[in-house]
Amino acid sequence: MNGEKMEKLPVPVTVFTGYLGAGKTSIIKNLVRRLPKDYKVSWLKNEFGDMEVDSEVAKDSHIDVKEIMNGCLCCVLVGQMNEALKEIVDNQNPSRIIIETSGSAYPAPIAWEIRKMDFLQLDGIITVIDAVNFSGYEDKSYTARIQSQYTDLIVVNKHELVDPRKLESTLDDVHDLNPTTPKINATGPDGIVEPGLVFGLDTKLFASAEEVELLENDKDKHHHGNEVDILQAKLVEMKVFDKTSFEDFLEQLDPEDVYRAKGLVCLSGIDGREGSSFVLFNFVGGRHTFESIDSYKGDPKLIFMGTDLFRYKKKLIAFLQVEAECVTLIPRDHTHKATSA
């Protein structure tokens, strides 16, 4: 082999799907932390809206993260995904790429695009389901059903938050959709999964154009805009909120309307500490959590996803005490266009 250039092996790619708030981001963060230090992972995230939130958190984990915003990888942003993957391979030389899709993404077109790139190898498609909320989403979302049907592994997250009867009912719903795919539980409130269970799957899904085309013909071409409204706020100056007041605001959100909310806000009264600090807040199914993000130096930003969010717009403006133009609503029937306040 002297003098000969070694042929570069394709980079394995693992795709994570799952409906809004299933816990994909937390599972990926904990997954990467369990890998050897010399195993380099690049993480490509697709998000609703046009605000980067999770990449700010991932910086603390020393992961290379790239976010693609304001659209869906499986349809209008396929070209951006291709370019991003080429850039990642050329510039970061990763051991593996993890793609985290938005909550409304279909896996088929994403998988097929990866298969067409000779410098990548589609290793597996993982679907994360939320044991607390899956049964409700399964009824509301065609996408949630498709994600559960076409996958190599189903990870059941938040199972410890439900009683045995509800968990059994949820697993029955999942089994009805997909009786053959292996199912495992994520461990603990942070969602821990061993890398050996999700890597090295060598998926056989979506291996032909005919298989992908068959699914594509059935899908809603505007699904990304039809499933959820997006309400987002970008604050142009620093504001500090009292933790108790912020929690009171979150508790006023009806989980039947607000499926998911998250953001970076500066709160006082965190963990009994003096002063204020930035946190990542997450709201799913009426529950909320805070995670300290001491490294964040930007302005506060919040994003809410659900239905009929026009009812929450004035409430959000009043609570944040900001000008109306700081808050925008992207209704379900406008796939990617934000409305003025």
Order of helices and strands: EHEHEHEHEHHEHEHHHEEHEEEEHE
Please, how many helices?
A: 12
**Low-pLDDT residue spans:** 334-341
Strand order of the largest sheet: 3-2-4-1-5-6-7
> Could you give the count of β-strands?
14
Estimated share of beta-strand residues? 25-35%
Describe the structure.
The protein is built from twelve helices and 14 strands. A seven-stranded parallel β-sheet has the order 3-2-4-1-5-6-7, with helices on both faces. Strands 8, 9, 10, 11, 12, 13 and 14 form a seven-stranded mixed β-sheet that branches. The longest helix is centred in the N-terminal third of the chain and has 15 residues. It starts with 10 loop residues before the first strand and ends in an 11-residue tail after the last strand. The C terminus is likely disordered.
Short description:
The chain is built from twelve helices and 14 strands.
Could you give the topology of this structure?
Blueprint: E1 11-17, H1 24-33, E2 41-47, H2 54-58, E3 64-69, H3 78-92, E4 96-100, H4 107-115, E5 120-130, H5 134-140, H6 142-149, E6 153-157, H7 164-177, E7 183-185, H8 195-198, H9 209-218, H10 223-226, E8 229-234, E9 240-242, H11 243-251, E10 258-268, E11 276-284, E12 287-292, E13 301-306, H12 310-320, E14 327-330
Parallel strand pairs: 1-4, 1-5, 2-3, 2-4, 5-6, 6-7, 9-10
Antiparallel strand pairs: 8-13, 8-14, 10-11, 10-13, 11-12
Helix pairs in contact: 5-6
What key attributes describe this structure?
alpha/beta, 26% strand, 341 residues, single chain, 31% helix, disordered C terminus
